[in-house]
Structures are given as C-alpha cells and as structure tokens.
Amino acid sequence: MKTVPKDRKLDQSINVLREGYRFLPKRFADLDTDIFETRLLGEKVICLTGENGAKLFYDKEKFQRKGALPKRIEKSLFGENAIQGMDGDPHEHRKLLFMSLMTPEKMDKLGQLTSEQWRKQAEGWKNQKNIVLLEEAKIVLCQAACQWAGVPLKEGEVKKRAELLWAMVDAFGAVGSRHRKGRKARVNAEKWIKELIENIREGKVASEEGSAIYEMAFHRDLDGNHLSTQVAAKELLNVIRPTVAVAAYVAFGALALHDHAEEREKVKEAQGDYIERFAQEIRRLFPFVPFLGARVRKDFMWDGYSFEKDTLVLIDVHGIDHDRRLWERPNQFSPERFKDWKGGLFDFIPQGGGEHYTGHRCPGEWITMEAIKSSLKFLTREIEYEVPSQDLSYSLSRMPSFPKSGFRIEEVEFK
Asked: Which of 37, 62, 124, 314 has an alpha carbon within 20 to 30 A of 352's alpha carbon?
C-alpha cells in the first residue's frame, strides 16, 4: 500500500483563503503528485487532480455529497438540504427536475430573453460615461433568469434582487463582512422566493406549467410529497442565483474580446460554431469554481492508496482545466482548442464532471453557455464601445474572481 504524500503544515485553512485558486495546483506541483493529504479546519483532507482523479471523484459508488459541504457554504451559497448535498435515488430524482428545465427550446428562450434584456439595459447607457459591464451583467442576467423562471419582478426591484443573488455568490470564498453579507442575503432571498412558492400553491399568483417556478412549486419527492416551501425556494434559487454568477464570465468574455482583436472579429461574424468554442474557452481559462468536495462512502483502495470512510476529498477543478497533460499551452486563450474536442466528462470540469443526469455535474452548464453566447453576440454585433484605461487584472487569490475594474466601457454606440 502506498502512503499518500502529505502537506506538512498543521492546518491550511488560512492559506486556502490567501491563495484561492492557486492553493491546490501549487501543492500538487510542489509535491509532484496527483494526490496529497492536508488538513483544513482541523480535518484530514485528501486532494486529487488530473483526469484520473476526476474519474475517481465522480464515482458514485465510492463517494457521497452528504456532509461534504462546509456549513458556511451551505448558509451562503447553496442553501441547506438542497440538491448539492444529496445522494442516491433522491438525488437522481431531484436532478431530473433540474434537467427537465434544460431542453433546447427552453435554452433558446433564455438566450432570447438575455439578448432582449441587454438591449433594454443598454438604453440607459446613452448619456452615461462610466459603464461597468460586470454590474450591468448582474442586472441583465437577474432580469432574464427571473423572467425565464417565471419569477415576477417589479421594475424598481431588479437591481436590489440582482445584488441579493450576487452577494450569495460573492461570499463563498470570503470571511468577515463579505461572508456575513452573503449569509444575510441567503436568508432574505429564501424568504422572498418562499413567499412566492406559497402564493403559487395557493393560487394567488399565476405560473406557467413547465416554468422553473411552477416545477419547483409542484415537484413531488420519491414519497409523492411536495417539497417543503423552504426547500422549493432553495432549489429555485439554485437556478437563478448561478445565472447571475455568470456575470463574472461576461466580464471575462469582454476582457478576452478586448485582448484578442482577431478573435473578436470571428465572434462577430460567428464563423461556424466559433462562438461556442469561444464561450467554452472562457469557461476553461478564467477562474470560476476552485475545487469541489465529497466524502468517502466506504473504505476502498485506489492506485495503491487507501481511502477511509467519511474522509473529505477535494477535486482540483481549476487545476484540471489548466492541466498541461490535457491542454496544450493551458494559460493561453485559444478557442480553436475546442474545434475537435470530443466532450470528455473528466478533462473539462469548470462546473463539475461526470454525467449530468445521474451524477453531480452542474445542470446549469447549458444556462451558462446561453448567457455567455448571448452576451458575446450583443457586445460584438449590436454595440461599439471604447475601453478606457483601467485595472483589468484579476486575482487568483480572490474567490470568486473577476476583472478588478469590473470592465468599464464608454462612448457606446448602437449599430
């Protein structure tokens, strides 16, 4: 039996917050291994990277999600007792609820709504000198996601709701005031959506069958019971919250368009499926999810290493998407790398790996792609703008990350 290489520090919790997306890749490189043991919050943790590591991590017979998420993440980002912490038949049944929302027709509708909201939001830019694309994207995506999901929004509350949803996302890698803000936002957001679910069930608010809010409100578990209004609210938030999080990808997409003028022209002309490849490269290159966790379901051996029941295991999401063994020149922006890509389940995992229907790969990948592509089309085909001098760098220590300036534009003209 092999001994798992160890990171000798007593506890690395502080360094996770200090180093962010770099934490795991740095230690895999320093130890020259795809597996190592460390301690986080006083607990033994095994960390994995590489395609084979991802294949192992997404083996449902060996790992479970119950108990893997830190409470601080549940209380800010995902919500307690939501799908991210489920396993087995209950998870697969709940997953079908989410997958029912991801049909091509519904994704087309989301793309149309996103484009419409960009045009509507841009109407107010005509006399503005300082337009921060990240902030605008939060509002656009909140409005589009809520309209698509059937969540009613009053004109004056869109920005407030967008900030509420973003605060939950912004809290996941934070401590102190940023984390407290996210937890407070979670409480307020659940209260808001819970009341809507109750009103829909009581017939006080109309909803369209097939919409996300209708399906969450009337979904039945394996015992034939409706979800509690609290859980239904959390799951609906797990549709619209991550859509607002795509605002970071929109800002990164604008950065890529700015840095690669020749690529911008290809997106503008949409040669073949180039815009699809461009969007995928944004998801691969730029930081989004740093790592994900699971717990060992039962004792087992893998590649000569022993895994004990209940041990927490982390998979290096960001590192795998930048693995030199999987991606040529991984730190270079190159959409063409996806031209002949076959769609591996474990070599490209910006929102998780494995199967969508039965595993824990995020069902919202299609939403992410539609939101990015619609935003790219708007930025390249419907407006022209200037990019003033600003700090366009982004930190791999901050989780989540985005361009420091939020990507400012000015002198917007409509085509």
From this structure: 37
Torsion over CA of 60, 63, 67 and 73, rounded to 10 degrees?
-80
Q: Which of 111, 44, 102 is nearest to 307 (CA)?
A: 44
- pLDDT per residue as tens digits for the range 238-296: 999 999 999 999 999 999 999 999 999 999 988 678 999 999 999 999 999 999 999 99
Coil, strand or helix at 297: coil
d(CA 212, CA 228) in angstroms, rounded, equals 16
In angstroms, rounded to a whole number, what is the distance separating the alpha carbons of residues 50 and 33? 10
Contact of 111 with 373, CB cutoff 8 Å: yes
> pLDDT for 153-197, tens place per residue?
988 899 999 999 999 999 988 889 999 999 999 999 999 999 999
The distance from CA 317 to its chain's CA centroid, rounded to whole angstroms, is 12
Helix/strand/coil for 104:
helix
- The tens digit of pLDDT for each residue in 385-396 reads 999 999 999 999
DSSP E strands in 253-407: the ranges are 292-296, 300-302, 305-307, 312-315, 383-386
CA separation, residue 127 to residues 98, 137, 140, 383 (Å): 41, 18, 19, 15
Backbone angles phi and psi of 285, in degrees to 5: -75, -45
Preceding omega of 400 cis (within 30 degrees of 0): yes
Contact yes or no for 352/361 (Cβ under 8 A): yes
Give the position of tokens 């989004």: 288
φ, ψ dihedrals at 350, nearest 5°: -60, -25
Q: Residue 403 to residues 68, 347, 367: CA-CA distances in angstroms?
A: 30, 26, 22
User: How far apart, in whole angstroms, are the C-alpha atoms of residue 51 and residue 321?
Assistant: 10
Residue 121: its H or E element: helix 104-122
Sequence-ordered strand ranges (E) for 60-130: 63-64
Angle subtended at Cα 194 by Cα 362 and Cα 140, rounded to the nearest 5 degrees: 55
Residues in the chain: 415
E-strand ranges in 87-246 read 131-132
How many C-beta atoms surround the C-beta of residue 334 within 10 A? Answer: 17
**Who contacts 337 (Cβ-Cβ below 8 Å, separation ≥6)?**
277, 281, 327, 328
Q: Rounded to two decimals, what is the model's pTM? A: 0.95
